[in-house]
Amino acid sequence: MHLGRRHFLLVLLEELSLLVIFTLLLFMLSTDKLSGMNEAGRSFINRLRKHRRLMGYTQDDVAYLLGLHSKTEISRWEKGTTVPLTDNVIRLAYIYHTFTEELFREYYKQVRYEIEPREKKVAQMRLKRNEKKKKRKY
Question: Number of structural domains, the chain?
Answer without folding.
Answer: 1
